[in-house]
Design brief:
This protein is mainly α. Helices cover 52% and strands 0% of the residues. The chain has helices at 26-45, 50-53, 66-88, 91-95. Helix 1 packs antiparallel against helix 3 (66-88). The two termini are 39 Å apart.
């Protein structure tokens, strides 16, 4: 195998890997890392061993069983994190890329 086969570059020379932090300003990096931490927290909320602790029917929260209210809370947290991340992104930098 040659070294070229391990190069993950597209036709235009861009990387085909998921890039979250490369080339970003420190403030943008910090916001994205906070978002990744929130995403990890929500993922942990919905998997074992955390979810089974809240998988009961009682108590009712706003008329919902505890297990369903737990999932709704995770969705609300994730939606809030996505809105926060979108509202703090620099949209001026990406505006020119869509008009070609």
């Amino acid at each position: 195998m040659s070294a070229e086969s391990n190069d993950h570059r597209g036709i235009d020379g861009s990387s085909n890997r998921l890039v979250i932090l490369r080339g970003a300003e420190p403030a943008t990096r910090r916001r994205r890392m906070i978002f990744v931490a929130i995403y990890g927290m929500v993922a942990a909320m919905l998997t074992w061993p955390l979810f089974p602790r809240f998988a009961g029917v009682k108590p009712l929260i706003f008329g919902l069983p505890l297990s369903f209210a737990w999932v709704v809370a995770a969705l609300v947290i994730m939606f809030g994190a996505l809105v926060w991340l979108y509202s703090t992104e620099d949209h001026e930098r990406t505006k020119d890329h869509g008009s070609s």
